[in-house]
Amino acid sequence: MHRWLIYLFIVLALTSCGDTSGKKENKSQQSKAKSEKKQKSVIDQELKKQVDMLKEIQQYEIKQEEKYEKQTKEHYKKLEKESEQKDDESKGKDKEDKGKDKGNKGQNKGNKGQE
Fold first, then answer.
1. Residues 15, 20, 21, CA angle at the centre, nearest 5°?
2. How far is it, in rounded angstroms, from Cα 21 to Cα 5?
3. Mean per-residue pLDDT for 64-84?
4. Residue-wise pLDDT tens digits, 21-53
5. What angle do CA 52, 55, 58 make, to 5 degrees?
6. Residue 11: what are its φ and ψ, rounded to 5°?
7. What's the predicted TM-score (pTM) here?
């Protein structure tokens, strides 16, 4: 009977020691997993910040391109109007010059008749 109690006591001692070592390993694995999750979450947060910054930069570049296009179109329209005005002015001068030339020719003919 004493032997049986001794075996029982040894078995209980061994099983209780085995459980604590398993618990320690389990706790260390859990703590490693938690630290890895924290590291991953920190990395994910930093990556998200960088992605957001990249998106903001792209939006800024798009706005700048649109602004440049608008300015270019306005400048082109302005140059086009100035060109049209110059053409109109030169056509008006040509008409005036032709009108003067016709008037001078008529006067010259009148002068020849008077001589």
1. 100
2. 24
3. 95
4. 556 667 778 888 888 888 888 889 999 999 999
5. 155
6. -60, -45
7. 0.44
